[in-house]
Design goal:
The protein is an alpha/beta fold. It has five helices and nine strands. A five-stranded mixed β-barrel has the order 5-8-7-6-9, surrounded by four helices. Bound molecules: hypoxanthine. Hypoxanthine binds next to strand 5, strand 8 and strand 9.
Length: 262
């Protein structure tokens, strides 16, 4: 892969549903199709070929995934996290992950940004399951500081200084693809989650296993708590709400990269 790009990325970026536009801001972009990378999963969705895009974003050398994989699509946990291993192998030190999520916290509204401070894995599978390859990471990785505290502080400072509504929260990952029942949203709230979604946790587990720093952010597409206020939510609703907030996410990520790049 290094022979196919002159860039040496230090930051990897995985973009969530409706948040892929950031890839278009990458300068001097050089891309490699997923198909050309041995063992890389290939997108099942027609017209979404998928590629790794190398280049400069806000002065930092980055590699971004244009096209992301979800467990509900049928990939194994190992397949869908393979890109994290590849990005580590090409030299990244930091992984930035975004996603669309539902709020189960009454104080967190649609359109808000939630910087993840922790997660709860309810996907009932784990990308590290199976024989451990010690070259990639330890058998029992610690998860105490999974979400880099210094980057959380930086994100909060940037949001506050620019009047962007943001929170720190706990993300709970479910398999999907259905959204949750009211009883399930209530349960997510009670176990201590702030936002709920169908991605991110596998990639974060692998990133930590690989010794990467992690910054993750949810864009809230629907507020699903308290349950008396829940409205039906379609995928189009999710994409629309996320689209309205995408510029704020882009601003925060670019501001962080400006500090990281220098
Ligand atoms: N639940 C799960 N995943 C989601 C949601 C939700 O309410 N909104 C966006 N992704």
């Amino acid at each position: 892969m290094r022979s196919k790009t002159t860039h040496q990325p230090r930051v990897g970026i995985i973009l969530g549903s409706g948040l892929g536009g950031l890839v278009n801001d990458i300068e001097s972009a050089q891309s490699i199709d997923y198909e050309a990378i041995p063992h890389f999963p290939v997108s099942t969705v027609k017209g979404h070929a998928g590629k790794l895009v190398f280049g400069k974003l806000a002065g930092a050398d980055v590699v971004a995934m244009a096209g992301r994989f979800h467990y509900y699509e049928g990939y194994t946990m190992q397949q869908l996290t393979f890109p994290v291993r590849v990005m580590k192998a090409v030299g990244i030190e930091l992984l930035i992950v975004s996603n669309a999520a539902g709020s189960v916290n009454d104080g967190i509204e649609a359109g808000d940004l939630v910087f993840l401070r922790d997660h709860i894995n309810l996907q009932a599978d784990n990308p590290l399951r199976g024989p451990n390859d010690e070259r990639l990471g330890v058998r029992f990785p610690d998860m105490l500081y999974a979400y880099d505290p210094a980057l959380l502080d930086l994100a909060s400072q940037i949001a506050q200084a620019n009047g962007i509504r943001s929170h720190r929260g706990v993300y709970v990952a479910l398999q999907g693809p259905n959204l949750e029942t009211p009883a399930e949203y209530e349960f997510m709230h009670r176990i201590g989650a702030d936002v709920v979604g169908m991605s991110t946790v596998p990639e974060v587990i692998v990133a930590r296993n690989a010794g990467l720093r992690v910054f993750a952010v949810s864009v809230v597409s629907n507020k699903s708590y308290p349950i008396s206020t829940i409205k039906e939510t379609s995928h189009e609703d999710v994409l629309e709400a996320v689209g309205l907030a995408a510029a704020r996410l882009t601003f925060v990520v670019k501001s962080m990269l400006k500090r990281f790049g220098n």
